[in-house]
Design brief:
The protein is mainly α. The chain has helices at 2-9, 28-46, 52-74, 79-92, 94-101, 113-155. It has one domain. Helix 2 packs parallel to helix 4, helix 3 runs antiparallel to helix 4 (79-92) and helix 3 (52-74) runs parallel beside helix 6. It starts with a helix and ends in a 14-residue tail after the last helix.
């Protein structure tokens, strides 16, 4: 490679230090996907330490979040929507799950007060996630509609003709 550069530019190529690995910059979408994978692993890992109701609800939420992450990437979610998604995946869901798992096993029974509180929180978060998915999809539909109106206004006007008008004849 060095000889090639020297042949083209007529001067010695500057040596490159290849001993350091290239810095990898993680995108926002990659960070969110990684946080989702971490959350899904938490749900799988801790399923036996939770009542079936809680682990099932967490599994459904994790699956739904996968759909939202894909929709946010493919349908160009707004900054606010991406921020909310990141907060859900990275904080709003894992924090109460970690807190719940830190409780003594007697407090993690199906009928315990702590389980009821967690289920209520998870239900609220799941509703918020569903609403977020709807907002992302609706935003994409609204954008498509706006573009359709633009095209209609631009091209559905009076037809252009090349025939001379009667005034010029």
């Amino acid at each position: 490679m060095r000889r090639f550069v020297e042949a083209i530019f007529g001067r010695p190529a500057v040596p490159v230090d290849d001993s350091r690995p290239a810095e990898v910059v993680e995108t926002e979408a990659q960070r969110t996907a990684r946080a989702l994978a971490d959350f899904q692993a938490l749900v799988r890992r801790s399923g036996r330490d939770m009542p079936t109701l809680v682990s099932s609800q967490l599994g459904q939420i994790a699956d739904l979040l996968g759909v939202v992450v894909d929709a946010a990437a493919s349908e160009d979610a707004s900054t606010e929507q991406r921020y909310l998604l990141d907060a859900m995946v990275g904080d709003y869901l894992p924090t109460p799950v970690h807190t719940y798992l830190a409780l003594p096993s007697d407090d993690r029974r199906e009928s315990s007060r702590a389980t009821g509180i967690l289920v209520d929180q998870l239900t609220l978060l799941e509703e918020t996630i569903r609403d977020l998915l709807n907002q992302i999809r609706t935003g994409a539909i609204a954008e498509l509609s706006t573009h359709g109106r633009f095209l209609a206004a631009k091209f559905d006007g009076p037809e252009l003709t090349l025939a001379p008008s009667s005034e010029n004849a």
